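Hello forum,

I keep getting stuck at the same step: I have a sequence, I want structure tokens, and every attempt I make locally crashes halfway through. Rather than fight my setup again tonight, could one of you with a working pipeline run this one for me? It's a single chain of 440 residues.
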Amino acid sequence: MDAKVSGSLNALDATAIVRKIAAGETTCEAVTRDCLVRIAERDGVVKAWVNFDPELALAQARALDHATHRGPLHGVPIGVKDIIDTFDMPTEFNSPIYKGHRPPSDAACVALLRRAGAVILGKTATCEFAGMAPAETTNPHNVANTPGGSSSGSAAAVADHMVPAALGTQTGGSVLRPSSYCGIFGFKPTYNSFNKQGVKPAAESIDTIGWLARSLDDIALLTAVLRMQAPQPLPTMSSAPRIGLTRTEMWDDAQPETKAAVDGAAAALAKAGATVREVKLPEPFTGLRKIARETINFYERAACMAYEWDHHRAALSPQMRRYIENGLKTSREDYVAGWHRIEQCRALLPTVFDGLDVLLAPCAPGEAPKGLASTGDGTMQAIWTALHTPSLTLPTHRGPTNLPVGIQLVGQRYDDDRLLACARWVWQKVGAPDMIGYRA
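Reply #2:
Ran it on my machine without issues. Output:
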């Protein structure tokens, strides 16, 4: 069954669901039931969900249908990456160490979603501790390919029309990469825009909660809820944006489809009226991806996994053990030097963005790789994550085997709303509506 063609409620985005429920055209329970039907049909193959209880989801929806208060997400089903605490279902981090683990409370982001009227549909699959060892999740466009990670289940569930939106986290590229691979929107806001209480850390100095969704309107709506703001319409640009084409030092690692997507988008945007100029990042940015992905990430991961390393080492995957070993070998001096370099590059960001609204950059090396043993290369997003800048995947292109290929837009720190406004303009000019979600 093709969810979009069938017209089922599970194919709607969150904004449309809110509107239909408010107008009395449907109910919270009906929306949740259609999501559950889709999950029952497809999750045996996609494997996006863990710790999933249909009756608990329906009970939440029925309670909302009888509630007098209506929040901005009233009746919207949401998926939650399984490193984020929920009081009413287990949080297991894809690790046998935490099998059946029941947190006493919701993470702050989940509590804010419930306050806004969301239905917490279930927990989505993740790599072990949002690290390297992948989940069993497959790419809905081709189940022989990875969906990306570590927000694997969130990306696959949204792309497959099982849920309109889901929470993910990004320490390197764990929101934007799976969004690119699965053909949906991924948004990583400015660092610490969303409160991280109740989220298992990987590298706390760069860990960021983000959104995976099927529309930019939803990104704006969901972002407002987690920023504890009244939702507003998606921002718009008063004039054509000024865009910096930034190929970065990873350009030689990009496959032809990614190069074509970035260069093609730049040409199309210039033709549509945007100011597009090429930007070469200053010399201190060279090598920043290695510092972000290895020095900072390894060192902080070794610290946050100290308990598991000391008491449950044998239960950790070989990938995680190597990760922690690398962190234990990283000196404090190298770690501090890494942060000095990152701070130097942050100080240069105003120069990089001078006269520009956003940067256009490659998002992932290419299409989703074949096989499920790896979730792909996240280095193309890693520098922006370490720099704390907001960034967003737009699902604009397809590759040689017809799998999605996204482009990445990057904004200046704390300029998230301008990034979203530019993304809307860009999407209107180079968007590919047929890309959004899966065709069964």
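The first helix runs from residue 3 to 6. If your local run keeps crashing, start a new thread with the error log.
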